[in-house]
Design a protein that fits this description.
CATH topology: Oxidized Rhodanese, domain 1
Helix content: 40-55%
CATH architecture: 3-Layer(aba) Sandwich
Strand content: 5-15%
Distance between the termini: 45 Å
InterPro entries: GlpE_sulfurtransferase, Rhodanese-like_dom, Rhodanese-like_dom_sf
Radius of gyration: 16 Å
Pfam family, one: Rhodanese
Number of domains: 1
Number of strands: 4
Domain Rhodanese: 34-120
Order of helices and strands: HEHEEHEH
Structural class: alpha/beta
CATH superfamily: Rhodanese-like domain
Protein name: Rhodanese-like domain-containing protein
Largest sheet: 4 strands, parallel
Amino acid sequence: MKALLIIFFSCIVIYTGYRVYRSIMLSDDLERAIQRGAVILDVRTAREYASGHIEGSINISLGTIRERFSDLNPDKVYITTCSHGLRSIKAESLLKENGFKHVYNGGAWEDLNKIGTKQKIK
């Protein structure tokens, strides 16, 4: 039981550290990319997207992204985002595997909005 508690609290500390690191290290790069015209690609479901999103973002769910590569321009810069950051990592990987060279993981859409997208939640 004691070992489980240690593992649990270690995971919390690691996750918190990751979120702080991400906020500090990635915010400037992502903000600059957005200011230069990067497209925010929200990979949540249409229902999730309808409940709140970054204005101007494009919604292509992770489940349909393979069928919709042709909707995207491989020369553009994309920042993937979702509810917690897990699906956006997968979307980033899928896009890169299919020839998209300028793709960044923006993590959770609410966090991405907070770091300076200069866009409004809709």
